[in-house]
Every structure is written in C-alpha cells, then in structure tokens.
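User: I'm curious whether this sequence folds into something compact or stays loose and floppy. Could you predict its structure so I can see for myself?
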Amino acid sequence: MTYHSGSRAVQDRVGVRDLADHVGRSIGQGIRPVAAAFLEQQPMLVLGAADPGTGAVWASLLTGRPGFVRATGVRQISVTGGPRPDDPLAPALRTPGTPVGTIALDPRTRRRMRVDGRARPTPRGLAVEADQVFSNCPKYLQRRETYEATGRVPGTPRRGSRLSPVQAESVAAADTFFLATVHAHGADVSHRGGNPGFVRVTAPGELRWPDYPGNSMFLSLGNLAADPRAGLLFVDWTAGTTLQLTGTARTEFASDGERSVRFTVTGVVETPAASPLRWSAPEYSPANP
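Assistant: Here's the prediction. I'll summarize afterward.
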C-alpha cells in the first residue's frame, strides 16, 4: 500500500493526487545495488518509532564507521550497534516487529534514502525488514562537504517537558531537523531543511515551521492527518549534541495555499556529545526560500 487515507486526504486537498501516483511508482520493497552501496558509505542513520509502553513517538540518531549500516538481503538492512540504553527509542527497538522508519542522509552529496519496515533486535544490533524503500530529491538539504569522527563521549541526557531558553535558541538556529511520524501500518522518518530561522519557537512548548513544496507524496503530513503523534530530532552538526522532542503536530492550511505545521511539545531529551561526528560548515540549499 503506497498511500493510506491520510496521505490521500492531503493530496486531494492540495490537488496533486495524479502527481503523487506518478511519484509513488518509485517506492518499492527491494534494495537495489546502488542503494545498498549508498547505505554502506554512511556514518549515520536516523530512526523513528513509537515507544511500545507510552506510545510517544521519537526520532534517534545512530552513528558508526561506514559499513555499520548495510543491506543484508533484498529487503533487509542490518545495523551494527544501536541506541544507547538511555535513549527514548531503545525500548521500541528491543521489541521484535516494531514498525520503524529510517533515513540515511548524506550531507556531502545531498542524497537521502528512506527504508521503512519492521525492526528486530539482533546479536550485533538490529535489522529492519523493508516494506517501503525510496530516495528523495536534494531539495532543502544543506551540503556539508566533510566530517571527522571525534573521540567524545556522550553526556548524561537532560529530560524535561518544555524547551529551556538555550534549547529554544538552538532550535531557532537550526537549518535541519528530522521528523518521525506513524500510521496504522508503519512508521516513517523524513528530513526538513531551510535557512536558520525556518523553525520558530512560539512558546516553550510549541514550535512551528513552514511546509515547503516537495515531492507531493505527503507521507509525513498524511501520517499526521491520521495520527498526530510525532517526534523531532535536532542535531548540532559541530558539537554533536542531539535534541529529541516528542509530542503532537497538526498541519494548518492558509487560504493562499501556504502550509505550516504546529508542533506541541510533551517531552524533551537533550544529550550532550551524543554524536562523535563533527561536520564542516553548511552550504545552504539553493532551494531554500
């Protein structure tokens, strides 16, 4: 099933059903050799899922030496390692059959690839059996030409229910974040990008960002139309700090055709030095408004 009723509702509202059907032909279940080669070059992978106990949706960052993510079958990827025990997504990934979305994003080439399916723990980490595999265009993706792996050790996570002033400043300065959403049949993680300031903190417990024109599939907004739970991941590309937010989101449609998403925060996890990767300064996407 390429699209569910939530995505169809948004496509019809915007008037892009035919285009969505055309673009949707690129979604498959198999991992092609070129996609497998791309995965093995990546030092990071973002996963999204719902906590089986609380129902909260989170997005988490996994990192490793290139090759830590690889295709181990036509419809399977395997990940060496996994989230830290104190990561909010850890319980979900310890549960066999958990619906999970993944995205491998390469800032060096502005390429990204998504594999959505079912996760199961393995002796070396986890595996994901793919239900949907597809790539996205480079729109709104900032180029970062190089990275280095540092030896920094993750700090103790700081938890809360609202953004602190410092956290709000980091969100407002972000040019990229990842959005995890769920639906009745699975989960998905997408990328959102723009010039710094494109995400606005309107209150300690509320964020808002514009929904820029994309591929017309409306997978994320379709998921939110069916289930408002969502998780956001912000990464400090230099210091390695991650900021994970969980809450609910809804799309607002303006009379002029513009769209924006309003996110209400219910949980915050900030982890200093969570990522060992230090990336070079960004070159902003020419597609950014």
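Summary: The mean pLDDT is 96. The helical segments are 5-14, 17-24, 33-40, 90-93, 165-172, 219-226.
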